[in-house]
Amino acid sequence: MSKTNEGQQDQIEDVVEVTDIVETTDVDGNDNTNWKALAMDRQELARKNHGIAQRYKTKADKARDNILTNPVEKKEPQSNDLGEKSYLISNGIKTKDEIALALRLKKETGKDIESLLETTYFQAELREFREGKATDNATPTASKRSNNSTSDSVDYWLAKDELPPASETKLRQDVVNAKMKKDTLRGIFYNS
After folding, report:
1. Has residue 119 been placed in a domain?
2. Are 48 and 16 in contact (CB under 8 A)?
3. Is residue 146 over pLDDT 50?
4. Among 27, 40, 88, 146, which one has the highest count of C-beta atoms within 10 angstroms of its own C-beta?
5. Is the pLDDT of residue 46 over 60?
6. Which of 102, 90, 107 is nearest to 130 (CA)?
7. Is the residue at 75 inside a domain?
């Protein structure tokens, strides 16, 4: 029988049962039992069972030592208390990000939710968080009309007239090839 334990294959050995000795006799009632062979078999079984017992004892000792040296840490109760969340929502803190901010600050300060909401520190943090969110939401994303080139494009580095960092070898090669192509096309037309 085998068992997988944390990705490791352990072979579980069963202790071999020792059967009763049956004496064999012939027709005349003489004892024909091979006592020496039986003794050897029993001795081999005893050695095997002793080895199995030693391995189990070693595993038990290691497990005990592991428990003694690495005690199980008590987990703090989760801050997912519905009462706290509903209290936050009733006080105007409604988004998941704002709730996460309040619970993080609760943990950092060690205060309960009620007293935390009354502190000027929390009010300032919440105001700053909301302003940052508003700024992120107000900033337009790149559109077709905008000419914002990212730093990982060839056009960006051509306009900057520099080479990208040495760690970006593919981009460097593309920029050099584009510059060479641009230089070969220069001078063909009168206004280039």
Report:
1. yes
2. yes
3. yes
4. 88
5. yes
6. 102
7. no
At what angle are helices 82-90 and 96-109 packed, to 10 degrees? 110
126 shares its domain with 93: yes
Does residue 168 lie within any of the structural domains? Answer: yes
Q: How many domains does the chain have?
A: 2
The DSSP line for 71-112 is PPPPPPPPS--HHHHHHHHHTT--SHHHHHHHHHHHHHH---
Total residues belonging to the chain: 192
Residue numbers of the domain that contains 181: 154-185
d(CA 149, CA 118): 46
Q: What is the DSSP letter of 140?
A: P
Rounded (5°) CA angle 121-127-129: 100
* DSSP secondary structure code for residue 65 in this structure: H
CA 147, 152, 156: angle at the middle one, nearest 5? 40
What is the residue type of 186?
Answer: R
Report whether pLDDT(80) > 60: no
Nearest CA among 22, 18, 19 for reference residue 47: 18
Give rounded-to-5 percent helix, strand, coil for the chain. Answer: 55, 5, 40
d(CA 69, CA 71) in angstroms, rounded, equals 6
